[in-house]
Every structure is written in C-alpha cells, then in structure tokens.
Amino acid sequence: MAQILKPGTLAPEFTLPVTADQKLSLSELRGRPVVLAFYPADFSPVCGDEMALFNEILPDFQKYNAELLGISVDGVWCHDAFAKDRHLHFPLLADFEPKGKVARAYGAYRDADGTSERALFVIDAKGVIAWSYLSPVAVNPGADGILNALESLPK
Amino acid sequence: MLKNPVTAEDHIQGDINAPVVLVEYGDYECPHCGHAYPIIKAVQKKFRKQLAFVFRNFPLNEMHPNAEAAAETAEFAGAAGKFWEMHDALFENQEDLELPNLLEMAKALKLSPEKLQAALASHEYQPRVRSDFQGGVRSGVNGTPTLFLNGQRYDGDVEIEELSAAITSLA
C-alpha cells in the first residue's frame, strides 16, 4: 500500500473541477476544517456505501464547520451521475486531468490500478494535515476516525 | 468496539444480563438486513436464554427513501410497548414501506394510524433514531447490518452456522 501523507504535513494545494464549469481550490477553504476522502471509483460497491454513509453524517461534520470533499479519478460527468444516483449532498472532485495528480501528491495513488487509494485526511483550518488514514481498498473505513479527529482539533 | 453500552433504554429481547448480547445496527429497507432477519430469529430460538438481542436504528436515508419513516414507525410502536411486533412486521414487508403500508401495519397492531401519521409528520421519534445512528457511527458502523457480540464487532458471515459458532464461543 502507498505511504500517505502524515499528520503535521502541510496539505498540498490543488485546484480541481467540481462540475463542468466550476473549480475548487483547497486554499479557498482555509479557516475551516476540510475532510478529504479519496476513494477508488464512482459506482464501485464499497465506495458507494462509504459515500452514502458520509452523506448521512454531513450534519455532524457541519457541527465542526467542516467541509467534506470526495475525490476520485473519475471525470465530472461521471461524478455528476454518481452524485445524482446516490443523492449525495457534498462536492466530488475530479482528479482526472492530469490523472491522479492530487492523489499522488497525497501519497494516495495506486499505480497498478490507476485509481486512488481509499484514504481519509482531516485538514485543519490552517491547511495542515491533522489526521490521515489509509483503509484497505475493499473496506469501508466508516466515519468514527474522522469524527474523533475533528473533535480533537483545537477550538 | 461498541462505544455505547446496552442499557435498559434499548429495545432488547431477552435478559440484558444474558451471557451473550447481540446488537444489530439495521435499516428496515436494507435487503441485507432483511436477509439477517430470519437468521437472527433462528439463533435466538437456538440459544434461548443464553442470548439477548438488541436492535438499533441505522437508516441510510438517501439510499433507502422509506428507511427513516420505517425506523420512526418502529419507535412509535415501541412507545406503546409494541416495538418488536412492528420490527417484525417491517422486515416482513420490507418491499413496501411506503406510508400507506406503514399505516396499515399500525392498524394491524391495533395502533392508531392517525397518531402514527402525525408522529411521522412531526418527526416525533427522529431524535431517538438519530441518537442510535450517531452512536453507531462512533462505534465504527459503516453499513447495515453491523453486528456486535458482547460489544465486539462481528465481521463474519450473517448465516446461521457462522453466527452460531461465534455465539457458542462466548456463551
């Protein structure tokens, strides 16, 4: 498995499409925590469950004023179809061109599969990684780790 | 690990002090929970007083549009002492958990369909369902059904043989 970036590391900046005509940069979210959830692919069964779970927990993330971002190497139209199908209420970033560039920067790219790992990062208000977790690809990591990390952030 | 221990507030079948306590986090509209339903009944029958069973709500609402209403319906019945009757009815009718059928199920259990409809409209039982859900998330529940045996997560197959073996090892 990859070596993902560790807590204490400045989270690499990125600008990625969220929709066909809208981009989002990590630095735009400075001042609030960010949950960055890399997952291998739209529509694959485990990530579906993982994203569905995160979708249900959005109100809890919002309590910490945290922004949840899903990210995979799928393109914007695929993300759009996936989000509509699963009624997802958070942005999905397309790490599509150059493929997996952001995943690589976070140490969360799987060369053999050409997808990202299933990896979670909690980034604090200053843009520093506060917590990171690499899950086996077939295992939905749940959300307890994220919530514990958000709870431990300095107020 | 189960972070929130089983208490008298839980819906429990059997003795809270039984040698083995099985906790399910479930969703009435989830087909895998529907699959687990008769299996859990079978192990309950097999282990009788050695096993207690607790059901907690974990509705994945965006995937299962009727799951929340179904969970609140069970809690509504629970407030009238008929939680398990409704729990069973919901799983036995999980193909159709639209409102008219929920009201029919209430009627069949001699509960007021009007009161149920009002309770669903005002989300009277939503806090209870949310509280189960949040406790589940904190215990690492990541899908349904998630089972715990004496507080330890059970990741084996939800089949009579495998589940029985795990219970036997604790009983």
Q: Any overview of this molecule?
A:
The complex is a heterodimer of chains A (155) and B (171). With 155 residues, chain A is of the alpha/beta class. In chain A, 28% of the residues lie in helices and 26% in strands. A five-stranded mixed beta sheet of chain A has the order 5-4-3-8-9. In chain A, helix 1 (45-63) links the parallel strand 3 (34-38) and strand 4 (67-72). The mean pLDDT of chain A is 93. Chain B has 171 residues and is of the alpha+beta class. Chain B has a single domain, classed as Glutaredoxin, CATH 3.40.30.10. Chain B contains seven helices and five strands, in the order E-E-H-E-H-H-H-H-H-E-E-H. Chain B has helices spanning 31-47, 67-79, 83-92, 99-108, 113-121, 126-138, 160-170; strands at 11-13, 20-26, 51-57, 146-149, 152-154. In chain B, strand 2 (20-26), helix 1 (31-47) and strand 3 (51-57) form a beta-alpha-beta unit.
Assigned CATH architecture of chain B: 3-Layer(aba) Sandwich
Number of DSSP E strands of chain B: 5
Sheet-strand content of chain A, in percent, reads 25-35%
Class per helix and strand makeup of chain A: alpha/beta
Q: Describe the biggest sheet of chain B?
A: 5 strands, mixed
CATH C-level class of chain B is Alpha Beta
Total number of strands of chain A: 9
Give the strand line-up of the largest sheet of chain B.
Answer: 1-3-2-4-5
The secondary structure category of chain B is: alpha+beta
- Name of the CATH homologous superfamily of chain A: Glutaredoxin
What is the residue-averaged pLDDT of chain A?
Answer: 93
Q: Please compute the radius of gyration of chain B using only Cα atoms.
A: 15 Å
SSE topology string of chain A = EEEHEHEHEEEEH
Low-confidence stretches of chain B: none
CATH class of chain A: Alpha Beta
Oligomer: heterodimer
> Could you give the order of strands across the largest sheet of chain A?
5-4-3-8-9
Shape of chain B: globular
